[in-house]
Amino acid sequence: MRYERSESFKGDYRKLSASERELFRDAVRVFNDAADEIASGALDTWPAKLRVRSVKGAAGVFEMTWSFSGPDGRATWEWVNTTDPKTGRRERAVRWRRVGRHSIFTKP
For position 52, which CATH number holds? Predict the structure, then answer.
């Protein structure tokens, strides 16, 4: 799955500990596989362990929660359309907006 990262996401990511980054990367591997299948129409639901759902009060923004404790791990994202630089074709991608703990929901 193609992706973009917001400036907020980049700043949040730098604040994560090494172990939090590894947990996020592990979750993203599962997320990417599912996102590819959802974008192609081969899958219509997210894996339950990622707890993907809409963010209340933020139209078009979704959250992924991979841990509720030890440490709390969440990220917000949205679907975007982007152009593949090699082929020039438009395709669906994910824009990561925020990553961290529950506090990211103040500005998802």
Answer: 3.30.2310.20
Specify the pairing of strand 3-5 against strand 90-100: parallel
One digit per residue, pLDDT tens: the chain, 108 residues? 889 999 999 999 999 999 999 999 999 999 999 999 998 889 999 999 899 999 999 999 999 998 877 778 999 999 999 888 889 999 889 999 999 988 888 887
Range of the domain at 95: 3-106
C-alpha–C-alpha distance, residues 51 and 38, integer Å: 15
What is the pTM assigned to this prediction?
0.88
CA distance 14 to 17: 8
How many domains is the chain built from?
Answer: 1
